[in-house]
Specification:
With 330 residues, this protein is an alpha+beta fold. It has a domain of 210 residues: Sandwich (Jelly Rolls). The protein has 11 helices and 12 strands. A hairpin with a 2-residue loop joins strand 7 and strand 8. Helix 3 packs across helix 5, helix 4 runs parallel beside helix 5 and helix 8 packs across helix 10. The longest helix has 19 residues.
């Protein structure tokens, strides 16, 4: 697990998975934040900027030896000083300002990442980040995970990856989807870390072999998660179609079919399954006991009530009325 995130939202070592200055007593808030959380936990010299009230609120998800963090913070500086480099940490740090901006001062140069960009730096180099108040997503990845994927990784010191790059968009989307589903077992976490490394490598500039592997693993996994997320979120809309999802993702309907076929399923089957589960949950909800079954079918994206009844009975071996009656008399 990484010890350092050199940015406003930082990745501490386990078991700390959430940190908030609101938890700290007001008289000692600044001192504890700087001395305990800053210098001891994440190994940064931190200081607030400006006169606005200081706050820091973040949660962290360990994924094998990688950490994803997301949260909000007031304007601040975070400096990785030379004495703090003695911990030997050499992780690659990626900072995405969701709202706000962050600049990095290092080796006499300065770079700036704005909302949607990704700032990249290494934690084994002294430097200072200056961030505005805002929301941030961070990713800490062991350098050894990128050594075989990125040409000349040792030459990487600092960079800004623009928001319009495909690798940046996919990496950001994938990381946020992982954060939304934190129940990840040890075996799956190793696979997810590999996918994250693939996407980071592509975003930074992968070598030819790593690009091919990333297309087969990281890109495929990120796109599949995005497809499933689009179905989960949009299934209740009757007009949801594979063409609409393809347009939103910037890929072809045929590619979506290919990705889902490799999983042994198809778009229509996933949409139907999601709609049926939405309907089952609604029929089991006492608060909706007076809502007509036909209205629930329409609410869940079914345009044909007869088809809904047939599909529901086939899936659950019970009619919609049976499920509603069972909910009334458990």
């Amino acid at each position: 697990m990484s010890k350092l995130m050199s940015a406003p939202i930082s990745a501490p070592v386990p078991p700390l998975q959430r940190f908030s200055t609101a938890f700290l007593p007001a008289p000692d808030r600044l001192a504890i934040w700087r001395e305990v959380f800053g210098r001891e936990v994440i190994r940064l010299d931190m200081a607030p900027l400006g006169d606005a009230p200081m706050h820091y609120e973040a949660r962290f998800l360990p994924v094998h030896r990688t950490t994803i963090g997301i949260g909000s913070a007031s304007a601040m500086s975070c400096e990785r000083t030379r004495p703090l480099l003695s911990d030997g940490n050499d992780d690659i740090i990626l900072l995405l300002p969701i709202m706000g901006s962050v600049s990095l001062e290092q080796r006499g140069a300065e770079i700036v990442a704005r909302s949607g960009d990704i700032l990249v730096r290494r934690s084994d180099d002294a430097g200072k980040t200056l961030s505005s108040s805002g929301q941030f997503l961070t990713l800490t990845l062991p350098v050894r995970e990128l050594e075989s994927r990125v040409a000349d990784i040792d030459r990487l010191t600092m960079a800004v990856l623009p928001r319009d790059g495909e690798g940046v968009r996919l990496l950001t989307r994938y990381a946020r989807m992982i954060l939304s589903d934190p129940e990840i077992g040890p075996a799956v976490s190793k696979v997810i870390q590999s996918h994250l490394a693939d996407l980071v490598a592509v975003a930074i500039g992968a070598n030819r072999a790593a690009w091919h592997e990333a297309q087969q693993r990281g890109f495929r996994a990120a796109r599949l998660r995005a497809i499933h997320a689009a179905i989960r979120e949009g299934a209740a809309e009757e007009g949801l179609s594979i063409n609409a999802v393809a347009r939103t993702m910037g890929i072809s309907p045929g590619y979506i079919r290919k990705l889902l076929a490799a999983e042994g399923t198809n778009f229509s089957a996933l949409v139907l399954e999601r709609r049926l589960h939405l309907a089952h949950a609604a029929l089991s909800d006492p608060a909706l006991a007076r809502r007509p079954i036909s209205a629930i079918a329409l609410d869940c994206g079914f345009g044909d009530v007869s088809y809904f009844n047939r599909a529901f009975r086939k899936r659950f071996d019970a009619t919609p009325g049976d499920v509603r009656a069972a909910a009334r008399h458990p």
